[in-house]
Queue: 3 jobs
Job 1
Amino acid sequence: MLSISQVPSFSLTSVKSLRSPSSSSSSTLSVFFSFFPKVSRFVRASSGIPNLAACSKPESIPRVNNAGLKLEETVEAAVKAKIRLDSWISSRVHGVSRARVQSSIRLGLVSVNGRVVDKVSHNVKAGDEVNCTISELQPLKAEPEDIPLDIVYEDKHLLVVNKPAHMVVHPAPGNPTGTLVNGILHHCSLPCVAYSNPEDDSDEETLSDDEEMTSSSSLAASVRPGIVHRLDKGTSGLLVVAKDEHSHAHLAEQFKLHTIERVYISLTSGVPSPSQGRVDIPIGRDPNNRIRMAAIPGSLSRGKARHAASRYKVIETLAGGGSALVEWRLETGRTHQIRAHAKYMGVPLLGDEVYGGTKSVALSLLQRRVSRSDQEQILELVSRMDRPCLHAIVLGFEHPCTGEVVKFSCPPPSDLAEIVGLLRRSGREKVTQLSAFFLTFMPWEFLFSIQRCWLC
């Protein structure tokens, strides 16, 4: 059922701990403040990095391998419906990542009612007897690569990275090198390790952009940069990476409970109506195109999609209504959630060729609304767009070591700032030109009659 409801106004001024601007990044921040005045106030709110000195204490976190840990339990009667085997074991074993639980299942270290089960998506029910032995840490196949990384924050337990557009998060068929994982291996001075490409197992969370990654990186018993969540290749912005298993499990649990704060900004093709609200439409595989997702009303009860909810607010209308700068806050983290919900609302993200924000759509909306002097530049910018205009601007979570709530922010990249600046300027020039036309050619009596109608 469609649910797009009015919600209270969002505020980005609550960010507590933000990236500290350095001299090398001051020009980028100046561009950001210039192009995003309505968003930049929360970046200006603070430049301090949270005090996480306690994280340097070795005793603050146990360094436990957990290999050989045994679980022998009966699925409780409180479980009314069937539940995935890997999910149930993960809920019973703390401090062990779900990826490692899945590895234990695939290695034949788990039995249900005395029978070995090697399928992670196997369903268990109340009364089933489960025996599990946690496996050794399984490595990845990835080589360290000297890839420049924009590190927003780092301590001995985690990294917060500003991922550029076009960078893939982890190695996969078609993208074996040049990924964020390759860069982190080099940054952390870790050796070449083996990598096992994750299997789908019909679990969309393993492919999720922002939900916990069930197939995290595994490097060593003491140091394990783990990909807890990911962003699309074309999406830029903030992403947290765990350095050890405890941090990975702790962060993954926060994603599972939807307590992570995630704020995105985007440019849409057209303007959302109403200007702010909540989209509560399940998301599943598009039956007509398996490489994309779709918002499918009423599909939740039929098991064809998963619950997905997004809150949005129009920050600014651009180019006379041809586009809008929109803030998104995610309550869930389904694959392509913002992109699928934006398409469902009829305002696909600008530059999103997969979900309808094509170059032709963008030009049809923008060219007739901008001044003639800017039409050529609009054409050039739109022609160069090679990714959805989407940026993960704020990331907040509870630090797995100190328990302190930390929040980080980074300004959008130059490609997004450039097109926002042009659309804002063009919209204003168009309005000025139209005003001049009316004042020159329209009878005063007609103008006054329009004014009286507005006042009524």
Job 2
Amino acid sequence: MGGSVSCCISPGESPKIRRRELELEECPITTTEDVSEDTGTYLQHISDRELPDDLAHEANPSDHPRASTLFLNKSQSDVREKRKSNYLNHMSPGLLSKKYSSCSTIFIDDSTVSQPNLKSTIKCVALAIYYHIKNRDSNRSLDIFDEKKHPLSREKVPDDYSVVDPEHKLIYRFIRTLFSSAQLTAECAIVTLVYLERLLTYAEMDICPCNWKRIVLGAILLASKVWDDQAVWNVDYCQILKDITVEDMNEMERHFLELLQFNINVPASVYAKYYFDLRSLADDNNLSFPLEPLSNKRAQKLEAISRLCEDKYKDLSKAALRRSVSAGNLLGVKNAQAVLS
């Protein structure tokens, strides 16, 4: 099921999930100038069909690495207020408890862009969604995501469900429950946030108190299917959320994909941007990643990884140089043939 998205309605549970790391690689986008006349019909990449390039960089941070993430922009007003309040009150929360490296001890966290810390990543994603809801521009929504019309439980939805903003802890508990029960990875949480912001941009809607649970659920459902080779089936989410039906899950998934215009591609550069912006969000809100002293064993492991990456980079550089020399020789041969003819 990896790489393909489908609505699973099997009455049984999915097989045990075997995880493996996937490397996100950006594929170069072929332009019309690179396609010769005898290569056949040129098929445009889906990311080229969405918006003009000048507008895309401004409006689609989930597609382009140079565009600033929405959640980081929405959090800045609150961050400035906190800094101003701390300055006026001569307070520096978090600084006294924060660990700093010294000559004898180096503190390092266990989160990397390829293997993020699960708990810290979920907290950051929940905080990003919290700022999305708190600092939303309006209350634009769609019926398919309205919790009143499509409840996730049999409990009565409160009358003020559409006006009371959820707290960060409530959002975190909701996401943590799904990730823990479905055994999802931290990378899936980052892809979930990418899909969520892509939905808000493409569909021109807002995430608000009345729809945040179903939007988050839909993003997690889609991210788990795209990221994992053996994804969690829709019926499994019905066992986590006891009162939701498979038909409702399928319908929500179908609408989510249509609103994304079936663009489920997440380039490595976009993924990395969201990861580091989440770390910036954590720093701004004193959500520090767990730090541990650097031990000899871990230092050797980091050195081995660094050496492996360095060797891989050298091999890629040599291959690129060989291709460049071959292309140059071929061009020289063609020029010589043209002169002789």
Job 3
Amino acid sequence: MLLAETNQTFEVTFILLGFSEFPDLQVPLFLVFLTIYTVTAVRNLSMILIIRINPKLHTPIYFFLSHLSSIDFWYSTTVTPKLLENLVMEDRTISFTGCITQFFLACIFVVVETFMLAVMSYDWFVAGCHPLLYTVIMSQKLCASLVAGTYIWGIVYSLTLTYFVLALSFCGSNVISNFVCEHSAIVSVSCSDPSVSQMLCFIITIFDEVSSLFIILSTYISIFVTVMKMSSTGGCQKTFSTCTSHLTAITIFHGTVLFLYCVPNSKNSCLIVKVGSVFYTVVISMLNPLIYSLRNKDVKESFRKLMNHPKLSC
């Protein structure tokens, strides 16, 4: 019996429907997502390279930005290639191992990005509210510990959810009405009761969202209070402009994640869920370098020097 169950597990496959309900849009969507992925890869890898080669950017905030760019690149790489393949191939199947692997890696990157945004908010809080103590507070040891903590929690979160997903039973071919193997889609095609896995996912996700948003909101409130006390109008405008762009990215990311977990499980909401999934898996990874870094003068200047480098020109 154990051998039969094992063989059944290896025969399980998933079918990612993606955007198959729009056959006339397969090629246009392929070109759009290919462009987005190319821009995402170029921007994030360029950001990492610029920070590595420019000594002026060896500061805590750019240290965090380099990790955010790395997360966005690998997150997009985990999801987009399979999406592109399914847009041009008739066979939209993915193996059980492939689906679980994609789910495991995607969980890690989502959770790490969630808390990396919170860490960056804390960095801006220290820089804005305690500028004279910034170098003392944001030491290399603290920065490394904060980054390590986000990765460790991301791995623990992903391992926990993956363990409970693997404890479920699956039968034959399972049709997933999405382009990515995410938790709600996988457990919805399970042959066994997924209530424990769903409840665990809900509890941990609420904890992640509440804790990270509490850090972000409390730090930005402190920043705004400090800025309002400034006598310099130019300094206030610059700070508000920077914070507004950062809060826009945070709102898009967290708003999409919360929205996806609040959408009713109905057939009418399938397209909305797919569009929401596109935003937090594909689009946000492209927008983050632009919002967080490429608007910065130091980064722009470094990028310009990199593009004008003789070896690169050749």
